[in-house]
């Protein structure tokens, strides 16, 4: 007689993080110190960007209100202890998913919200056409970043000599490059598009189109709270699924009322009890789309053609349109 399969657990696993969020009434979100297009505060202290939109989506899902977020700016070095200590509930900042980080830092990456690739910004007058042209150059980079190691590896593997100068803060590395202390500054192409805006004269600088790495980025949680990780992961999935299913902030009410698509109805809480399964409201995904928008809407206004960065979707397009964005089914 074959062994009996274990019964499905009827009670939700406890979530200290979710309980804390509900008790305090807001999400504590760790973000970048200030990267236009991703997480950036204006002179009024108002945060915006692709990663900020994710934080808002999480608040909309868990608390029903996208404004219930407090942002903690973190440097490359600070981000891990800030998350590990419990000071923030998650990181939503341009942080690359790597094996060693996942294996040794006690953190989990909950999906990909931006497919990034490392390159370099150089002065237009330098007439640098390819990365190899930077041989013997001086390169500024943030200390402890994946970009620091990737650049060193790339040039070493090709027997090209460069001088890499690292700085504790991204802004210090960028400032040093802008002041002429370095020939180039390296980061992800999306990050460079945001940083270029802050140069004294952006038109004097060009971002190389050659990519030397694949750097997928996404929200990060601590180990040990599986239900919170579940919520963080499926909030991102909901943003992507909404775009794939044609649900937008403008039509979400009509779609909720009239759609005959089984997956749309489950996503928006009409059928099924997907919120109950996570310990939050069943209209969690409806709140995301209604208050923040789907992934495509967020992308376009923060880093896409509706923003100052003007980044094409590229790999960050839906898989059905030639990109890499793909989400598991809501079943």
Label this structure with key terms.
alpha/beta; D-Maltodextrin-Binding Protein, domain 2; about 325 residues; three-stranded parallel beta sheet; five-stranded mixed beta sheet
Report on this model:
By secondary structure, the protein is of the alpha/beta class. It has two domains: 16-115 and 217-321, Periplasmic binding protein-like II (D-Maltodextrin-Binding Protein, domain 2), CATH 3.40.190.10; 118-213, 3-Layer(aba) Sandwich (D-Maltodextrin-Binding Protein, domain 2). It contains 13 helices and 14 strands. The protein has helices at 16-24, 50-63, 79-84, 99-104, 146-157, 170-178, 189-196, 226-244, 252-258, 262-267, 274-278, 284-291, 295-302, and strands at residues 27-32, 40-41, 47-48, 69-74, 90-91, 107-109, 114-116, 118-123, 138-142, 163-167, 184-188, 205-207, 215-217, 220-222. The chain has a five-stranded mixed sheet, sandwiched between helices. A hairpin with a 5-residue loop joins strand 2 (40-41) and strand 3. The radius of gyration is 21 Å and the shape is globular.
Strand content: 15-25%
Overall mean pLDDT: 93
Q: How many independent structural domains?
A: 2
For the biggest β-sheet, the strand order reads 10-9-11-8-12
Order of helices and strands: HEEEHEHEHEEEEHEHEHEEEHHHHHH
Shape label: globular
CATH topology descriptor of the largest domain? D-Maltodextrin-Binding Protein, domain 2
Structural class: alpha/beta
CATH classification class of the largest domain = Alpha Beta
């Amino acid at each position: 007689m074959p062994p009996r399969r274990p019964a499905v657990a009827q009670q939700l696993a406890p979530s200290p993080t979710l309980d804390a969020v509900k008790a305090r009434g807001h999400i504590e979100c760790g973000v970048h110190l200030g990267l236009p297009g991703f997480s950036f505060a204006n002179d009024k202290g108002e945060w915006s960007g692709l990663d900020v939109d994710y934080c808002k989506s999480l608040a909309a899902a868990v608390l029903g209100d996208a404004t219930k977020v407090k942002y903690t700016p973190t440097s490359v070095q600070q981000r891990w202890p800030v998350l590990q200590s419990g000071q923030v509930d998650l990181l939503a900042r341009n942080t690359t998913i790597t094996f060693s980080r996942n294996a040794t830092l006690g953190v989990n990456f909950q999906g990909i919200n931006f497919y990034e690739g490392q390159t370099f910004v150089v002065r237009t007058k330098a007439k640098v056409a390819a990365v190899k042209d930077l041989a013997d150059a001086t390169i500024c980079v943030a200390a402890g970043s994946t970009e620091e190691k990737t650049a060193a590896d790339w040039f070493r593997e090709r027997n090209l000599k460069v001088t890499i100068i690292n700085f504790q803060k991204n802004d210090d590395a960028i400032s040093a490059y802008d002041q002429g202390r370095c020939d180039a500054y390296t980061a992800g192409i999306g990050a460079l598009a945001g940083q270029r805006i802050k140069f004294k004269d952006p038109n004097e600088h060009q971002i190389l189109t050659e990519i030397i790495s694949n750097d997928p980025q996404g929200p990060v949680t601590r180990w040990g709270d599986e239900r919170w990780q579940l919520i963080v992961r499926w909030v991102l999935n909901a943003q992507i699924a909404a775009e794939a299913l044609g649900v937008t902030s403008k039509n979400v009410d009509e779609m909720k009322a009239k759609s005959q698509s089984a997956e749309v109805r489950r996503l928006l809480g009409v059928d099924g009890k997907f919120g109950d399964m996570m310990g939050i409201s069943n209209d969690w995904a409806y709140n995301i789309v209604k208050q923040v928008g789907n992934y495509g809407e967020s992308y376009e206004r923060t880093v896409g053609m509706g923003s100052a960065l003007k980044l094409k979707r590229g790999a960050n397009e839906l898989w059905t349109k030639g990109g890499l964005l793909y989400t598991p089914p809501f079943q």
